[in-house]
Design goal:
3 helices, Nucleoside Triphosphate Pyrophosphohydrolase, about 180 residues, three-stranded antiparallel sheet, four-stranded mixed sheet, alpha+beta, about 45% strand
Length: about 180
């Protein structure tokens, strides 16, 4: 289906601070037409910061969209001129006070491909240095939580962690540890 023109027209119906909403008129390869609503957002980066004792530095915050208080890895939008690595380090320090000295890329994925343009890059953060430079965004109210990795893994497997980036980071790190140990 290369070369097939899928999008016939694109109308912006909302332009906010964080996101834009577009309505697309699309052509399907079988000749049918349809409409899609697409949320346009900036890409993001997230990091699972693990200290030398195997503790993970997380944040707990209330997420209005799902009306729940959740535990998650530090993450944020990639600023213009910033790399995903720079974002991961910046967000980790701003949200937890810990600055990873070493990053290992875990995954790059579309976080809601059915309706959103956003991609997220996940990292493992190692060799943490505590700087204490916690500086969340003005609209964030965060609580830093430190958990042993095994306890966090158990929370993921029991369905207590709802955030996809955190679930992916935990499962990828578990697999990485397993591969190293075997």
């Amino acid at each position: 289906m290369r070369g097939f023109k899928h999008i016939e027209s694109r109308d912006q119906i909302f332009n906010g601070k964080y996101l834009k909403l577009e309505k697309l008129k699309i052509n399907l390869p079988d000749g049918r037409r349809g409409e899609r609503e697409v949320v346009r957002v900036e890409d993001a980066a997230a990091v699972i910061p693990v200290d030398k004792n195997g503790k993970v530095q997380l944040v707990r915050q209330y997420r209005h969209a799902i009306e729940k208080d959740i535990l998650e890895v530090p993450a944020g939008l990639i600023n213009k001129g910033e790399t995903p690595e720079q974002t991961a380090v910046r967000e980790c320090e701003e949200e937890t006070g810990f600055r990873p000295q070493r990053l290992k890329r875990l995954l790059y994925y579309a976080h809601a491909e059915g309706y959103s343009s956003g991609f997220t890059t996940l990292f493992l953060g190692l060799d943490l240095i505590y700087t204490g430079k916690i500086n969340p965004d003005s609209t964030e109210l965060l609580e830093r939580v430190s958990l042993p990795f095994e306890q966090l893994l158990k929370k993921v497997k029991q369905g207590e962690i709802l955030d996809s980036k955190t679930i992916l980071c935990v499962l990828l790190y578990e697999r990485m540890r397993y591969d190293i140990e075997t």
